[in-house]
């Protein structure tokens, strides 16, 4: 539905704009035909890319490049083309700026501090380590493979390759139903941190100046009077640039403070009123975004950064989800404008800048896709993550970002990047997005093949130590694999018995394990290990358990493998598993699971019983008692286990 709305909206707006413009009215319309072909072709290509599990904005880049190539851009420049098609340069530039501003406004709108604060320690350790190692690696690689010169070229080149894609990460987590898992929360948090760092450096891009006066072999003794004058003049420029950069940082802080105050004092009541009308909210959000971007451009701050922080100020309101739903087409429309014009811009670069730099593009692509995930082994070791978690985070973040594309484009237009550097970095970014998206579809299989890489992270306590030091009996024990509400209910069931039986919980979330280790009054014996690891099943004697309940949910392949393992080692042992999918339920039953807790089916059956009991009661009484009981139960979960249920 969103794609249909997007194509209708963008197509109609483009046609109306150009048909109404005096220069193209009356049948001239030289730009309408290629624009229509680009949008129509992008729609068809999007269908193909969706089948290949690719992000749809690649289709706009490809079609923009193809249509520009047909127009003859590889043989000329935009300036020369503008003399033939009067106004095309201004039109493309305007489309591009609008697209960037809308993309960053929506990125700011979707910025959520909970994505960082929910797992503060784990996100900070892994996020800072991931970005720090990435910037160091790609700063070196920029000079080694791409031949960058100077700090500005190298740092912006490194930034473009270090920042992961929020679009691709969100899609991967959604497809694997892992948004609220430990790996999903850390991946999202790292993406948010990286994007924020990119926006701050993007704001400073306009203040970056290249100071280059002499060749490396020049010496003071060989300088002429004019060269001495140039040297001191350049030092003045350098000093003023440094002061400007420091002042720009203060301006950004002041801008954020002002927007946050504006959000609380003005935007809150205004947006509450605007929510009554989708059309009014849409137009007002567009006006607010463009207005803040224009003001920032006037006072010397990057309009793109201004749009991002404007989005944050709106997203900070309690109506964020309603606003996102109503102004969502802005992101789609902005993305189409930007990526179409990006394809056109790429076509202005001589093809030799792409084909002649394969020896730089290939190793940089390998570093992004294959080496960046290894950073999570280092940071995972420091934060005590298990191997599976670190591997899945690393292979989720192994690409560059759509924000990186914006940074690279603006760096190119600011003459920080040459045509050659821009061609290299944009090729690496787009290829990394393509390769990474394909890898996301086969992550579980990749882990099974390469889990030896993260074996050092799986430091588990031995079964002998558990039995001798913690008095845990690994015989006829109740085993819970992973923690969620169902695990909690099973634990409370045994705790309420006259002779409470101990429950053995295996989980790879260090904060959940810490919670139960601190609460020694409960009947749960936690152990920090990967519940999907066959070595853990053998070590903790799952084949000798009384019952095994897998509550991992999202990792269906691990549950199928566990069912096969228990079928061989303990065919009479009941295995229970949890899923939210009907299709997965059938797959689990076919693999040998004794009973599948299919949450949607169970909820609907439970509600049917509640409905049957309450529907014939008097209107003033129906559902009152049930609702109050559910409210109290929910309050109990929040109050007694509120902190831990924020994590799952």
Descriptive overview:
The structure is a single chain. The protein has 648 residues and is mainly α. The protein has two domains: 2-208 and 233-451, Na+/H+ antiporter like fold, CATH 1.20.1530; 463-645, Rossmann fold, CATH 3.40.50.720. The protein has 29 helices and six strands. It has a six-stranded parallel sheet with strand order 3-2-1-4-5-6, sandwiched between helices. Strand 4, helix 26 (556-569) and strand 5 form a beta-alpha-beta unit.
Short characterization:
The protein is mostly helical and 648 residues long. It has helices spanning 2-20, 32-51, 57-70, 78-84, 88-109, 114-117, 120-146, 151-162, 166-175, 182-205, 225-274, 278-299, 303-315, 320-347, 352-355, 358-371, 375-383, 387-396, 402-413, 419-440, 443-450, 463-469, 485-495, 510-518, 534-539, 556-569, 582-591, 599-614, 624-645, and strands at 478-481, 503-507, 524-528, 547-550, 575-579, 595-598.
Number of separate strands = 6
Percent of residues in helical segments? 55-70%
Oligomer state of the chains in this structure: single chain
Total helical segments: 29
Name the CATH architecture of the largest domain: Up-down Bundle
Strand order of the largest sheet: 3-2-1-4-5-6
Briefly note the CATH topology name of the largest domain.
Na+/H+ antiporter like fold
Please report which band the strand proportion falls in: under 5%, 5-15%, 15-25%, 25-35%, 35-45% or over 45%: under 5%
């Amino acid at each position: 539905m969103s794609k249909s709305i997007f194509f209708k909206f963008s197509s109609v707006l483009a046609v109306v704009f150009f048909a109404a413009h005096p220069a193209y009215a009356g049948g001239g319309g030289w730009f309408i035909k290629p624009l229509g072909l680009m949008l129509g072709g992008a729609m068809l290509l999007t269908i193909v890319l969706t089948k290949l599990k690719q992000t749809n904005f690649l289709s706009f880049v490809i079609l923009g490049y193809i249509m520009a190539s047909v127009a003859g851009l590889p043989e000329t420049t935009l300036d020369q083309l503008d003399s033939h098609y009067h106004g095309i340069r201004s039109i493309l530039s305007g489309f591009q700026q609008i697209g960037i501003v809308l993309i960053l406004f929506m990125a700011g709108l979707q910025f959520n501090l909970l994505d960082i604060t929910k797992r503060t320690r784990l996100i900070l350790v892994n996020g800072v380590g991931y970005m720090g190692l990435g910037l160091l690696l790609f700063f070196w690689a920029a000079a080694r493979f791409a031949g960058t010169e100077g700090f500005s070229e190298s740092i912006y080149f490194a930034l473009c390759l270090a920042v992961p894609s929020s679009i691709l990460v969100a899609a991967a987590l959604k497809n694997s139903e892992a948004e609220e898992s430990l790996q999903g929360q850390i991946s999202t948090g790292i993406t948010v941190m990286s994007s924020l760092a990119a926006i701050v450096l993007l704001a400073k891009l306009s203040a970056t100046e290249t100071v280059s006066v002499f060749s490396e072999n020049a010496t003071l003794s060989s300088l002429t009077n004019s060269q001495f004058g140039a040297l001191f003049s350049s030092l003045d420029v350098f000093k003023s640039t440094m002061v400007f950069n420091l002042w720009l940082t203060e301006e950004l802080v002041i801008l954020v403070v002002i927007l946050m105050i504006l959000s609380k004092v003005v935007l809150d009541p205004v947006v509450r009123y605007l929510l009554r009308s989708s059309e009014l909210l849409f137009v007002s959000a567009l006006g607010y975004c463009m207005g803040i971007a224009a003001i920032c451009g006037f006072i010397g701050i990057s309009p793109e950064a201004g749009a991002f922080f404007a989005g944050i100020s709106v997203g900070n309101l309690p109506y964020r989800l309603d606003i996102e739903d109503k102004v969502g087409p802005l992101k789609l429309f902005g993305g189409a404008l930007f990526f179409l014009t990006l394809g056109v811009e790429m076509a202005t670069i001589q093809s030799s800048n792409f084909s002649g730099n394969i020896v730089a593009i290939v190793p940089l692509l390998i570093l992004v896709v294959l080496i960046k995930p290894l950073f999570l082994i280092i940071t995972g070791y420091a934060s005590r993550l298990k191997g599976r978690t670190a591997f899945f985070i690393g292979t989720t973040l192994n690409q560059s970002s759509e924000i990186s594309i914006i940074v690279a484009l603006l760096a190119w237009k600011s003459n920080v990047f040459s045509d050659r550097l821009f061609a290299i970095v944009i090729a690496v970014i787009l290829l990394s997005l393509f390769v990474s998206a394909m890898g996301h579809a086969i992550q579980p299989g990749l882990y099974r093949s390469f889990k030896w890489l993260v074996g050092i992270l799986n430091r588990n306590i031995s079964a002998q130590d558990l039995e001798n030091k913690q008095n845990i009996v690994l015989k006829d024990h109740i085993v819970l694999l992973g923690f969620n509400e169902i695990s909690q209910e099973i634990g409370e069931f045994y705790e309420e018995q006259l002779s409470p039986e101990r429950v053995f919980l295996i989980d790879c979330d260090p904060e959940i394990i810490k919670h139960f280790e601190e609460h020694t009054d409960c009947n749960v014996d936690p152990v920090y290990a990967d519940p999907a690891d066959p070595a853990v099943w053998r070590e903790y004697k799952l084949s000798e358990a009384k019952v095994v309940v897998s509550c991992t949910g999202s990792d269906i392949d691990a549950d199928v493998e566990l069912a096969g393992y228990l079928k061989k080692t303990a065919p009479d042992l009941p295995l229970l598993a949890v899923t939210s999918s009907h299709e997965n339920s059938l797959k689990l039953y076919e693999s040998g699971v004794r009973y599948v807790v299919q949450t949607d089916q169970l909820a609907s059956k439970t509600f049917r019983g509640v409905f049957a009991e309450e529907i014939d009661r008097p209107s003033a009484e129906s559902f009152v008692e049930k609702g109050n009981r559910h409210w109290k139960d929910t309050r109990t979960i929040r109050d007694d286990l509120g902190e831990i249920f924020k994590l799952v």
